[in-house]
Design goal:
Blueprint: H1 2-16, H2 20-33, H3 38-50, H4 54-67, H5 72-84, H6 88-101, H7 106-118, H8 122-135, H9 140-152, H10 156-170
Helix pairs in contact: 1-2, 2-3, 3-4, 4-5, 5-6, 5-7, 6-7, 7-8, 7-9, 8-9, 9-10
């Protein structure tokens, strides 16, 4: 176990040092030996998502759900990955399930809004972004998504308000 923990922390340190390829390689080595640790698979899924390898991220998130079906973060991230793959209806189902498990999971609300947006259901998408902001009023991603949705629907004052919220946070 100490060797496993050391490798896990080394992979995290590599990722934090922006040595993404080295961190990914170490995580891939670890998951080959340690197939049942959802944290390692979750880290690897995040790296794959960050680097645009959505098919591999999908497999990692599905593996996590096979060993831990209630893992709401993997469920929500699977929704985000499926959306990136152009599968908004399936993404929506996973986001809804993540929120059933953990109703205050901000990223699932945002991902669900994105899937609804992709399906042309803008009012429902805006409601998801607003819910995310009720949970975390400082989430810049939720502000940005809501600003964009408001801009598209012609609610320009609301769009400007949310863009300004992002700028206030960055200053």
């Amino acid at each position: 176990m100490p060797l496993f923990q050391s490798k896990k922390h080394q992979a995290l340190a590599l990722l934090n040092a922006n040595k993404i390829d080295q961190g990914r390689e170490l995580l891939e080595e670890i998951v080959t030996a340690e197939r049942r640790d959802p944290d390692i698979w979750f880290m690897l899924a995040a790296v794959y998502s960050m680097t645009g390898k959505y098919d591999k991220a999908e497999k990692c998130n599905r593996h996590i759900l096979a060993i831990q079906p209630g893992h709401f973060q993997a469920r929500g991230n699977l929704g985000a990955v499926l959306r990136e793959q152009g599968k908004p209806e399936e993404a929506l189902q996973h986001c809804e399930e993540a929120l059933r498990i953990q109703p205050d999971y901000v990223n699932a609300h945002i991902n669900m809004g994105g899937a609804l947006n992709d399906l042309g259901r803008l009012e429902e998408a805006k409601a998801c972004y607003q819910k995310a902001l009720l949970i975390n009023p400082h989430d810049s991603n939720a502000h940005y998504c809501l600003a964009e949705a408001c801009r598209v629907t012609g609610e320009l004052d609301d769009a400007i308000h949310h863009y300004q919220q992002i700028l206030r946070q960055d200053s």
